Amino acid sequence: MSVTFDRIPCTVVTGFLGAGKTTLIRNLIENLDGKRLAIIVNEFGDVGIDGEVLKGCGIESCPDDNIIELANGCICCTVADDFVPAIDQILAREPRVDHILIETSGLALPKPLVQAFQWPAVKARVTVDAVIAVVDGLALAEGRVAHDHAALEEQRLSDDSIDHDDPVEEVFDDQIACADMIVLTKTDLIDADGLALAKERIAAHLPRAVKIIAAANGQVDPAVLIGLGLAVEDDIENRKTHHDDELDHDHDDFDSFVIDLPAVDNADELAQRISATAEAENVLRIKGFVDVANKPMRLQVQAVGSRVNHYFDRAWAPGETRQSRLVVIGEKGLDRDAIERMLAA
Ligand SMILES: Nc1nc2c(ncn2[C@@H]2O[C@H](COP(=O)(O)OP(=O)(O)OP(=O)(O)O)[C@@H](O)[C@H]2O)c(=O)[nH]1
């Protein structure tokens, strides 16, 4: 008698830079009682910050070894080299993993990633449970992504010089187009009108009837998001995106680099500098870890646009090099020298 194993379900979490993917996943890890999890974290930029944040959870059902970081790129472009080996590594785990979560980079196009699940080596063993798009409620309410289409159209008609291909909007659109469920984040930062506006803006981009779940600080009942059993790999071709005709998508609309800073004296002052820099230089995202002089703890810094969060996340380990490294991400053409000068000032 042969023994057959069911395919392991995998939830793909997409969402634009800083929308709240890591926060949501961290919450899922903490509340998915009894399920053994493995997580693949894909980042744009060389420094694996999200992986570090998730490893800090210390949850028994998701040990650090089960968190695999695929930094520096886009999983869908490196299926054979990175993704399949990562899946192999997960499937070899004992005891058996019950569920896989993938946190894609904030610039990832979900369709090519899901298409990677059609590879025979993957399809035989793993199925895409659902694609969840995390969208930034605050950014939506403020019109930083998914602008009001009617207003934009009016503006477009009155000004021929506007560039109509907005890469941020395109990535956002593609992530929404591929989603089976949408989590609208940061609802603690918006009022009822903002929430209604955010939902309206999503609806304007939604090609299908998809549920929108409002969440604050990543708190969503895992039963709503996990175990949907949708086998998305069999349906993904039907989801129309901006990049359907591109064989190669190399994210060349965006730039990212790492800045090393000396130790800082004051965390609040650094946060102000980061905010001013993001504003002046049109930076989409800054994140990293910082050495604050005379403090035993490491400072974690997270900026989405000019909004900055910072907090001491853990003590520097004995023997660990205390360093300050920030990843900066924005649209192509970032002025690296100016950003470096402003952050170091
Ligand atoms: N107030 C508030 N802040 C949030 C919420 N969700 C996320 N954040 C904050 O937003 C920032 C970015 O959150 P992340 O979870 O790192 O976002 P991400 O989508 O993983 O970011 P990337 O991986 O860089 O694309 C962090 O400072 C979070 O603490 C929320 O619901 N409310």
From TrEMBL:
Known catalytic reactions: GTP + H2O = GDP + phosphate + H(+)
Keyword Membrane: no
All copies of domain CobW C-terminal, residue ranges: 254-345
Keywords on record: Chaperone, Hydrolase, Nucleotide-binding
Protein name from the UniProt record: Cobalamin biosynthesis protein CobW
Organism: Pseudorhizobium pelagicum
Role description: Zinc chaperone that directly transfers zinc cofactor to target proteins, thereby activating them. Zinc is transferred from the CXCC motif in the GTPase domain to the zinc binding site in target proteins in a process requiring GTP hydrolysis.
Domain of life according to the entry: Bacteria
Record-stated family: Belongs to the SIMIBI class G3E GTPase family. ZNG1 subfamily.
GO molecular-function terms, A-Z: hydrolase activity; nucleotide binding
One of the record's GO cellular component terms: cytoplasm
CDD domains assigned: CobW-like
InterPro entries documented for this protein: CobW, CobW-likC_sf, CobW-like_C, CobW/HypB/UreG_nucleotide-bd, P-loop_NTPase, Zinc-reg_GTPase_activator
One of the GO biological process terms: cobalamin biosynthetic process
